[in-house]
Amino acid sequence: MIILKIYLVRHGLVNHNLKRIYSREDEDLNETGISEAYELKENISNISYDIIISSPLKRAIHTANIINSANKEIIIDERLRERDPGSLSGKPLEVTNREEYWNYYSKIQYGTSENIREFFNRVKDFLEDLKTKDYESVIIVAHSGVSKAFYGYFNGINDGKFLNLGLNNCEVKEYIL
User: What is the DSSP annotation of 2-63?
Assistant: First the structure.
């Protein structure tokens, strides 16, 4: 059986993280986020990887470029895009019950936000596709929501509560696929 090591990384800090708002803007890293990415680059410099796969959003691509110490190819994959908040964009996180927003079994639909099950299935499709590739080790740069979907894929949906299961900015988590 072929083992694939995945190093899942969340992008560095962006201003909407600081403002604690939903955002569908394609926002780049702020100064803190850039510093976090350089610090992460140092912390993972001993990791061997074949490729980096990134979300198409600027904050993820910028993080991927900074941490790419081995100068490997960076592939962009739309399926790693953050969960779309739709009509919640620009609104404070408190306009939703965050526990329900990130509950896989919730029947509540907040505005035009992407359905959590469809979002998790999009990420699952990415991971299933990744199994067919000939990599030994990959770095994936994505988002907090994507890291919640990864958690569900590898650990099961269980009670469906994913609010506190996402990665922090420039945090890395290792998975074996």
Answer: ---EEEEEEPPP-HHHHHTB---S-PPP-HHHHHHHHHHHHHTTT---SEEEE-SSHHHHHH
pTM: 0.97
Which residues contact residue 98 at a Cβ distance below 8 angstroms, ignoring those fewer than 6 apart? 163
Q: Residue 175 pairs with which residues in a beta bridge?
A: 6
In the chain, the largest separation of any two C-alpha atoms, in whole Å, equals 47
Domain that residue 46 falls in: 5-176
Q: How many domains does the chain have?
A: 1
Interacting residues of 119 by C-beta distance below 8 A, sequence separation 6+: 83, 84, 145, 149
CATH of the domain at 168: 3.40.50.1240
**Which token pair is 147?**
């890291």
Any idea what the Cα angle at residue 29 is, between residues 166 and 113, rounded to 5°?
A: 50
| Exposure b/e, 36-69, CB count within 10 A at least 16 = b | bbeebeeebeeeebbbbbbbebebbbbbbebbbe
pLDDT one-digit tens code per residue, 40-98: 999 999 999 999 999 999 999 999 999 999 999 999 999 999 999 999 999 999 999 99
The CA dihedral of 139, 159, 24, 58, to the nearest 10 degrees, is: -10
